[in-house]
Specification:
5-stranded antiparallel beta sheet, disordered N terminus
Protein backbone atom coordinates (compact mmCIF):
# COMPACT_ATOMS: atom_id res chain seq x y z
CA UNK A 1 0.00 0.00 0.00
CA UNK A 2 1.05 3.60 -0.43
CA UNK A 3 0.48 6.77 1.55
CA UNK A 4 -0.20 9.65 -0.83
CA UNK A 5 0.75 13.21 -0.06
CA UNK A 6 -0.72 14.69 -3.21
CA UNK A 7 -2.61 13.14 -6.08
CA UNK A 8 -1.00 13.89 -9.43
CA UNK A 9 -3.01 13.80 -12.65
CA UNK A 10 -1.75 11.53 -15.42
CA UNK A 11 -2.14 13.01 -18.86
CA UNK A 12 -4.87 10.93 -20.56
CA UNK A 13 -3.32 9.67 -23.81
CA UNK A 14 -6.31 7.59 -24.86
CA UNK A 15 -8.79 7.86 -22.04
CA UNK A 16 -8.61 7.30 -18.31
CA UNK A 17 -11.49 7.80 -15.92
CA UNK A 18 -10.87 8.41 -12.25
CA UNK A 19 -13.69 6.10 -11.20
CA UNK A 20 -16.13 3.63 -12.79
CA UNK A 21 -18.97 6.13 -12.36
CA UNK A 22 -17.57 7.84 -15.48
CA UNK A 23 -17.74 6.38 -18.96
CA UNK A 24 -16.77 7.05 -22.54
CA UNK A 25 -19.66 6.09 -24.78
CA UNK A 26 -18.60 4.52 -28.03
CA UNK A 27 -20.72 5.54 -31.00
CA UNK A 28 -23.75 3.33 -31.51
CA UNK A 29 -23.23 0.35 -33.79
CA UNK A 30 -24.39 1.40 -37.20
CA UNK A 31 -26.55 -0.55 -39.60
CA UNK A 32 -23.42 -1.09 -41.73
CA UNK A 33 -22.39 -3.83 -39.26
CA UNK A 34 -25.06 -6.09 -40.68
CA UNK A 35 -22.85 -6.54 -43.76
CA UNK A 36 -19.55 -8.34 -43.16
CA UNK A 37 -16.53 -6.29 -44.20
CA UNK A 38 -13.32 -7.99 -45.44
CA UNK A 39 -11.19 -6.03 -42.94
CA UNK A 40 -13.35 -4.20 -40.40
CA UNK A 41 -11.73 -1.42 -38.41
CA UNK A 42 -12.65 -3.15 -35.16
CA UNK A 43 -12.54 -6.86 -34.48
CA UNK A 44 -14.72 -6.35 -31.39
CA UNK A 45 -17.13 -3.51 -30.78
CA UNK A 46 -19.69 -3.16 -28.01
CA UNK A 47 -22.18 -0.40 -27.29
CA UNK A 48 -23.87 0.14 -23.90
CA UNK A 49 -23.56 -3.57 -23.10
CA UNK A 50 -25.31 -4.55 -19.86
CA UNK A 51 -25.69 -7.80 -17.96
CA UNK A 52 -27.66 -7.99 -14.73
CA UNK A 53 -28.13 -10.96 -12.43
CA UNK A 54 -31.03 -10.02 -10.21
CA UNK A 55 -29.94 -6.88 -8.39
CA UNK A 56 -26.27 -7.34 -9.25
CA UNK A 57 -24.96 -5.45 -12.27
CA UNK A 58 -22.13 -7.56 -13.70
CA UNK A 59 -21.56 -5.40 -16.80
CA UNK A 60 -22.78 -1.82 -16.74
CA UNK A 61 -22.92 -0.09 -20.10
CA UNK A 62 -19.64 -1.39 -21.51
CA UNK A 63 -18.33 0.44 -24.57
CA UNK A 64 -15.37 -1.39 -26.05
CA UNK A 65 -13.45 -1.15 -29.32
CA UNK A 66 -10.70 -3.61 -30.22
CA UNK A 67 -8.78 -2.68 -33.40
CA UNK A 68 -8.26 -5.37 -35.99
CA UNK A 69 -4.83 -7.02 -36.07
CA UNK A 70 -3.68 -6.28 -32.52
CA UNK A 71 -3.23 -8.19 -29.28
CA UNK A 72 -5.60 -6.58 -26.80
CA UNK A 73 -5.37 -7.12 -23.05
CA UNK A 74 -8.64 -7.02 -21.10
CA UNK A 75 -7.77 -6.21 -17.49
CA UNK A 76 -9.60 -5.79 -14.22
CA UNK A 77 -10.02 -7.24 -10.73
CA UNK A 78 -11.99 -10.39 -10.00
CA UNK A 79 -15.68 -9.69 -10.35
CA UNK A 80 -15.16 -6.69 -12.65
CA UNK A 81 -17.11 -8.31 -15.50
CA UNK A 82 -14.36 -9.66 -17.76
CA UNK A 83 -15.57 -13.26 -18.04
CA UNK A 84 -19.20 -12.15 -18.29
CA UNK A 85 -18.27 -9.87 -21.18
CA UNK A 86 -16.43 -12.69 -22.96
CA UNK A 87 -19.40 -15.02 -22.53
CA UNK A 88 -21.74 -12.42 -24.01
CA UNK A 89 -19.43 -11.89 -26.98
CA UNK A 90 -19.39 -15.64 -27.62
CA UNK A 91 -23.15 -15.99 -27.30
CA UNK A 92 -22.89 -18.21 -24.23
CA UNK A 93 -25.11 -15.88 -22.21
CA UNK A 94 -27.63 -13.28 -23.30
CA UNK A 95 -27.02 -9.61 -22.48
CA UNK A 96 -29.66 -7.72 -20.57
CA UNK A 97 -29.33 -4.85 -23.06
CA UNK A 98 -26.89 -3.27 -25.48
CA UNK A 99 -25.22 -4.57 -28.62
CA UNK A 100 -21.92 -5.99 -29.81
CA UNK A 101 -20.24 -7.04 -33.02
CA UNK A 102 -17.42 -9.43 -33.91
CA UNK A 103 -15.51 -8.80 -37.14
CA UNK A 104 -18.29 -6.48 -38.28
CA UNK A 105 -21.13 -8.95 -37.65
CA UNK A 106 -23.70 -8.22 -34.93
CA UNK A 107 -23.64 -10.79 -32.13
CA UNK A 108 -26.90 -12.58 -31.44
CA UNK A 109 -26.80 -15.14 -28.70
CA UNK A 110 -29.06 -17.55 -30.62
CA UNK A 111 -27.26 -17.16 -33.98
CA UNK A 112 -23.77 -18.56 -34.58
CA UNK A 113 -23.09 -16.72 -37.85
CA UNK A 114 -21.30 -13.85 -36.06
CA UNK A 115 -18.83 -16.37 -34.63
CA UNK A 116 -17.85 -18.24 -37.80
CA UNK A 117 -14.35 -16.78 -37.87
CA UNK A 118 -13.90 -16.62 -34.10
CA UNK A 119 -11.92 -19.09 -31.99
CA UNK A 120 -12.16 -19.09 -28.21
CA UNK A 121 -10.75 -20.70 -25.09
CA UNK A 122 -12.84 -19.92 -22.02
CA UNK A 123 -11.38 -20.99 -18.68
CA UNK A 124 -9.06 -24.00 -18.80
CA UNK A 125 -9.14 -26.60 -21.58
CA UNK A 126 -10.63 -30.02 -20.73
CA UNK A 127 -9.37 -33.13 -22.51
CA UNK A 128 -9.63 -36.91 -22.16
CA UNK A 129 -6.30 -37.76 -20.54
CA UNK A 130 -5.97 -41.31 -21.86
CA UNK A 131 -6.43 -40.19 -25.48
CA UNK A 132 -3.70 -38.65 -27.58
CA UNK A 133 -3.67 -34.97 -28.49
CA UNK A 134 -4.71 -35.86 -32.03
CA UNK A 135 -7.55 -38.12 -30.88
CA UNK A 136 -8.87 -35.41 -28.59
CA UNK A 137 -8.86 -32.82 -31.35
CA UNK A 138 -10.42 -35.23 -33.87
CA UNK A 139 -13.23 -35.96 -31.44
CA UNK A 140 -13.82 -32.27 -30.75
CA UNK A 141 -13.61 -31.47 -34.46
CA UNK A 142 -16.30 -34.02 -35.30
CA UNK A 143 -18.52 -32.67 -32.53
CA UNK A 144 -18.03 -29.22 -34.07
CA UNK A 145 -18.92 -30.49 -37.54
CA UNK A 146 -15.54 -29.98 -39.18
CA UNK A 147 -15.57 -31.75 -42.57
CA UNK A 148 -11.89 -32.80 -42.72
CA UNK A 149 -8.68 -33.01 -40.74
CA UNK A 150 -6.74 -30.19 -42.38
CA UNK A 151 -7.57 -27.54 -39.73
CA UNK A 152 -6.38 -30.02 -37.10
CA UNK A 153 -2.99 -30.45 -38.77
CA UNK A 154 -2.57 -26.71 -39.21
CA UNK A 155 -3.54 -25.99 -35.60
CA UNK A 156 -1.12 -28.54 -34.17
CA UNK A 157 1.66 -27.12 -36.31
CA UNK A 158 0.88 -23.56 -35.23
CA UNK A 159 1.00 -24.34 -31.52
CA UNK A 160 4.16 -26.44 -31.84
CA UNK A 161 2.61 -29.79 -30.89
CA UNK A 162 2.76 -31.60 -34.24
CA UNK A 163 5.58 -33.87 -33.04
CA UNK A 164 3.66 -34.75 -29.85
CA UNK A 165 0.24 -35.23 -31.42
CA UNK A 166 0.23 -39.01 -30.87
CA UNK A 167 1.23 -38.78 -27.21
CA UNK A 168 -1.41 -39.14 -24.54
CA UNK A 169 -2.54 -35.86 -23.03
CA UNK A 170 -1.79 -37.19 -19.53
CA UNK A 171 1.92 -36.87 -20.39
CA UNK A 172 1.58 -33.16 -21.25
CA UNK A 173 2.69 -30.31 -19.03
CA UNK A 174 0.19 -27.63 -18.04
CA UNK A 175 1.65 -25.31 -20.67
CA UNK A 176 1.30 -27.95 -23.38
CA UNK A 177 -2.35 -28.49 -22.41
CA UNK A 178 -2.94 -24.75 -22.68
CA UNK A 179 -1.40 -24.77 -26.16
CA UNK A 180 -3.57 -27.76 -27.08
CA UNK A 181 -6.59 -25.77 -25.92
CA UNK A 182 -5.52 -22.91 -28.20
CA UNK A 183 -5.12 -25.45 -31.04
CA UNK A 184 -8.76 -26.38 -30.52
CA UNK A 185 -9.69 -22.68 -30.68
CA UNK A 186 -7.81 -22.41 -33.99
CA UNK A 187 -10.02 -25.02 -35.69
CA UNK A 188 -12.26 -22.52 -37.49
CA UNK A 189 -9.14 -20.80 -38.92
CA UNK A 190 -10.22 -17.68 -37.05
CA UNK A 191 -9.42 -14.07 -37.71
CA UNK A 192 -10.26 -13.34 -34.05
CA UNK A 193 -9.05 -15.38 -31.08
CA UNK A 194 -10.66 -14.80 -27.66
CA UNK A 195 -8.82 -16.22 -24.65
CA UNK A 196 -9.93 -16.07 -21.01
CA UNK A 197 -6.85 -16.29 -18.74
CA UNK A 198 -4.69 -18.29 -21.17
CA UNK A 199 -1.59 -18.08 -18.93
CA UNK A 200 -3.25 -18.99 -15.64
CA UNK A 201 -1.13 -21.38 -13.57
CA UNK A 202 1.75 -21.56 -16.03
CA UNK A 203 5.40 -21.81 -14.97
CA UNK A 204 7.96 -19.44 -16.56
CA UNK A 205 8.63 -21.80 -19.48
CA UNK A 206 4.90 -22.14 -20.14
CA UNK A 207 4.49 -18.37 -20.09
CA UNK A 208 7.20 -17.98 -22.71
CA UNK A 209 5.57 -20.65 -24.91
CA UNK A 210 2.16 -18.96 -24.81
CA UNK A 211 3.71 -15.51 -25.30
CA UNK A 212 5.65 -16.62 -28.39
CA UNK A 213 2.59 -18.39 -29.80
CA UNK A 214 0.32 -15.35 -29.51
CA UNK A 215 2.92 -13.07 -31.08
CA UNK A 216 3.31 -15.49 -34.02
CA UNK A 217 -0.46 -15.64 -34.52
CA UNK A 218 -0.58 -11.85 -34.72
CA UNK A 219 2.51 -11.39 -36.89
CA UNK A 220 2.30 -14.41 -39.21
CA UNK A 221 -1.47 -14.91 -39.43
CA UNK A 222 -2.60 -11.29 -38.93
CA UNK A 223 -4.91 -12.58 -36.22
CA UNK A 224 -6.55 -10.34 -33.65
CA UNK A 225 -6.08 -11.73 -30.13
CA UNK A 226 -8.33 -10.60 -27.27
CA UNK A 227 -7.22 -11.93 -23.90
CA UNK A 228 -8.08 -11.40 -20.27
CA UNK A 229 -5.31 -11.74 -17.72
CA UNK A 230 -4.09 -10.76 -14.26
CA UNK A 231 -0.43 -11.12 -15.31
CA UNK A 232 0.31 -7.46 -15.96
CA UNK A 233 3.97 -7.98 -16.82
CA UNK A 234 3.07 -10.50 -19.53
CA UNK A 235 0.32 -8.25 -20.84
CA UNK A 236 2.77 -5.37 -21.17
CA UNK A 237 5.22 -7.60 -23.05
CA UNK A 238 2.78 -8.76 -25.74
CA UNK A 239 -0.23 -6.45 -25.92
CA UNK A 240 -0.51 -3.54 -28.34
CA UNK A 241 -3.54 -2.12 -26.54
CA UNK A 242 -5.32 -2.68 -23.24
CA UNK A 243 -8.65 -1.90 -21.67
CA UNK A 244 -9.19 -1.78 -17.91
CA UNK A 245 -12.63 -2.64 -16.58
CA UNK A 246 -13.97 -2.00 -13.09
CA UNK A 247 -17.51 -2.51 -11.81
CA UNK A 248 -18.60 -3.45 -15.30
CA UNK A 249 -17.36 -0.27 -17.00
CA UNK A 250 -14.30 0.52 -19.07
CA UNK A 251 -12.27 3.06 -17.08
CA UNK A 252 -9.13 3.25 -19.24
CA UNK A 253 -8.10 2.09 -22.66
CA UNK A 254 -5.76 2.64 -25.56
CA UNK A 255 -2.24 1.79 -26.78
CA UNK A 256 0.00 0.65 -23.93
CA UNK A 257 2.76 3.12 -24.81
CA UNK A 258 0.35 6.05 -24.75
CA UNK A 259 -1.27 5.02 -21.48
CA UNK A 260 2.13 4.88 -19.80
CA UNK A 261 3.34 8.19 -21.24
CA UNK A 262 3.83 10.91 -18.66
CA UNK A 263 5.14 14.48 -18.71
CA UNK A 264 6.88 13.96 -15.37
CA UNK A 265 9.75 11.76 -14.28
CA UNK A 266 9.47 9.18 -11.53
CA UNK A 267 12.23 8.59 -9.02
CA UNK A 268 12.39 6.19 -6.10
CA UNK A 269 14.23 7.57 -3.09
CA UNK A 270 15.79 5.52 -0.30
CA UNK A 271 16.12 7.70 2.77
CA UNK A 272 16.51 7.22 6.53
CA UNK A 273 13.21 8.89 7.56
CA UNK A 274 10.42 8.18 5.09
CA UNK A 275 7.59 10.16 6.78
CA UNK A 276 9.83 13.23 7.08
CA UNK A 277 10.95 12.85 3.46
CA UNK A 278 7.33 12.51 2.29
CA UNK A 279 6.39 15.74 4.04
CA UNK A 280 9.43 17.59 2.73
CA UNK A 281 9.11 16.40 -0.87
CA UNK A 282 5.41 17.20 -1.10
CA UNK A 283 6.15 20.87 -0.30
CA UNK A 284 8.54 21.35 -3.23
CA UNK A 285 7.05 23.33 -6.14
CA UNK A 286 8.48 21.05 -8.85
CA UNK A 287 7.10 17.85 -7.25
CA UNK A 288 3.79 16.69 -8.72
CA UNK A 289 3.16 13.92 -6.21
CA UNK A 290 4.93 11.83 -3.59
CA UNK A 291 3.98 8.42 -2.22
CA UNK A 292 5.47 6.48 0.66
CA UNK A 293 5.98 2.76 0.22
CA UNK A 294 7.45 0.28 2.69
CA UNK A 295 11.11 0.83 1.82
CA UNK A 296 11.21 3.89 -0.43
CA UNK A 297 9.58 7.14 -1.44
CA UNK A 298 8.26 7.45 -5.00
CA UNK A 299 8.28 11.00 -6.30
CA UNK A 300 6.82 12.35 -9.55
CA UNK A 301 8.61 15.52 -10.55
CA UNK A 302 9.95 17.58 -13.41
CA UNK A 303 12.62 15.45 -15.15
CA UNK A 304 15.48 17.92 -14.65
CA UNK A 305 14.84 18.43 -10.94
CA UNK A 306 16.21 15.16 -9.52
CA UNK A 307 19.43 16.80 -8.27
CA UNK A 308 17.37 19.60 -6.72
CA UNK A 309 15.23 17.03 -4.92
CA UNK A 310 18.32 15.36 -3.51
CA UNK A 311 19.72 18.71 -2.31
CA UNK A 312 16.41 19.71 -0.74
CA UNK A 313 16.11 16.45 1.22
CA UNK A 314 19.70 16.70 2.44
CA UNK A 315 19.08 20.33 3.49
CA UNK A 316 16.21 19.02 5.65
CA UNK A 317 18.70 16.85 7.56
CA UNK A 318 17.77 13.62 5.75
CA UNK A 319 20.32 11.00 4.70
CA UNK A 320 19.60 9.98 1.10
CA UNK A 321 21.18 6.63 0.23
CA UNK A 322 19.79 6.20 -3.31
CA UNK A 323 17.78 7.94 -6.03
CA UNK A 324 16.63 5.52 -8.72
CA UNK A 325 14.76 6.55 -11.90
CA UNK A 326 11.60 4.48 -12.37
CA UNK A 327 9.79 4.00 -15.68
CA UNK A 328 6.03 3.67 -15.16
CA UNK A 329 4.72 0.23 -16.06
CA UNK A 330 1.31 -1.32 -16.49
CA UNK A 331 1.22 -2.36 -12.83
CA UNK A 332 1.69 1.27 -11.75
CA UNK A 333 -1.16 2.37 -13.99
CA UNK A 334 -3.42 -0.48 -12.90
CA UNK A 335 -2.89 0.13 -9.18
CA UNK A 336 -3.46 3.85 -9.67
CA UNK A 337 -6.76 3.14 -11.45
CA UNK A 338 -7.89 0.71 -8.77
CA UNK A 339 -7.44 3.21 -5.93
CA UNK A 340 -10.77 4.08 -4.30
CA UNK A 341 -11.96 7.61 -5.05
CA UNK A 342 -10.97 10.21 -2.47
CA UNK A 343 -13.86 11.30 -0.30
Amino acid sequence: GATSASQGARTPPAFIHDHPSGGVRAPALQQRLTVAQPMPTYAIETCALHKRYGRRQAVAGLDLRVPTGCIYGFLGPNGAGKSTTIRMLLGLIKPTSGSSALLGRPVRWDDTRSRREVGALVEGPAFVDYLSARQNLLMLGRLSGLPHDQPLEEALQLVGLAERQNDRVRTFSHGMKQRLGIAQALFPRPRLLILDEPAQGLDPQGLVEIRDLLLRLRDERQMTVFLSSHLLHEVQLICDQVGVISQGKLIAGGPVAELLKTDHGLVRVQVDDLPHALSAASELPYVESAEQYENFLQVSLEPDKVADLNAALVACGLRVSALMPHNPDLEDLYLELMKPPES
